[in-house]
């Protein structure tokens, strides 16, 4: 490619409103930070790489409570989308390692837009600023009075109250991403639903905070690790946590998410004819050689297999990679998180320890239940039995050959 990706209607609308907010509505401190710094100004980055529904949202939420870190509110994939580094500029979510026809300075500044430093007391102004910069990505075609939103939020109103006042359903946000919730969704967004908002223990960045570790996670990064290393953060110290989860649990989670048909939707790829799915939009990551017809369960298998295949292929681009099993995050939380903290050289954190004892529920489609995939075991096993050699190889490399350990 010899030119920057072409922007779509939603991207143009989101960019226009986003720039209106960053240039004249957010706090002076936030505006100053975005004018002086970019995401690659951090001394180090801890990148969580995983397949979708692999538990990365929970692990990210735990680690972003460490008081030696900075982090965005959620995944940073929406900033790729805002800059057109996604389908249909590419045939899938794979970005070539040598792709450099993008505005790197703009992307790195955008990634910084909702990053804050973890601190117990937090900062309401930071949370208000972050809510504002994300709204154009969540509702690019809505005519939202952003100045009024800012005033109401600063006066103490909750985001839920403000949005409901403009006829926007809060069912589109993370804590309501449940199977029993019924909410109409707009089809054209930049940020993938369910949307997220800032947590209470974050404050605005200062110059000293760039000595901290920036924590990033987006499942789409599984397909662009070499590009991240070579083009996006070529001079940054990056450590990678490769988070794995057994195929049955991940595929089951993907199947649930697809069938919600009101969240986790990413692309309009044209007509879809999947057995088991009555929606119109693609959900989760778009692997290479994707198809638009067949069985939904086969699509979920491909998403798990291809994501980990690409991570395993590209991991050698990094000097420091730690493989962690999500099963261990659940069953041996203290020891597993301690291993990651030592790997990332983060040190101790009282706030992190408290969160490890009582982690939040994030991006869940149903109440957590051990080995929930066994509720549809026949369907899951049928797709695994007809999987190809690539799947078998990945299972062996990730050491998931014993079904009795699949929780």
Write the layout of secondary structure elements.
Blueprint (H helix, E strand, L loop, with lengths): L8 H16 L3 H9 L7 E6 L6 H8 L5 E3 L5 H6 L21 H9 L3 E3 L5 H15 L7 H9 L4 H7 L36 E2 L9 E5 L7 H8 L4 E8 L2 H14 L4 E3 L5 E3 L6 E2 L9 E3 H19 L5 E6 H6 L1 H11 L6 H8 L19 H9 L3 H9 L10
Parallel strand pairs: 1-5, 1-6, 2-5, 6-11, 8-10
Antiparallel strand pairs: 2-3, 3-4, 7-9
Helix pairs in contact: 1-6, 6-7, 10-11
What is the residue-averaged pLDDT?
A: 92
User: What is the H-and-E element order?
Assistant: HHEHEHHEHHHEEHEHEEEEHEHHHHH
Which CATH architecture?
Answer: 3-Layer(aba) Sandwich
CATH topology: Rossmann fold
Tally the helices. Answer: 16
Total strand segments? 11
End-to-end gap: 43 Å
Q: Which CATH first-tier class would you pick?
A: Alpha Beta
Whole-angstrom Rg:
20 Å
SS content category: alpha/beta
Helix content: 40-55%
Biggest sheet, open or closed, and with what strands and sense? 7 strands, mixed
CATH homologous superfamily heading: P-loop containing nucleotide triphosphate hydrolases
Shape: globular
> Which residue ranges are poorly predicted, with pLDDT under 50 across at least 5 consecutive positions?
none
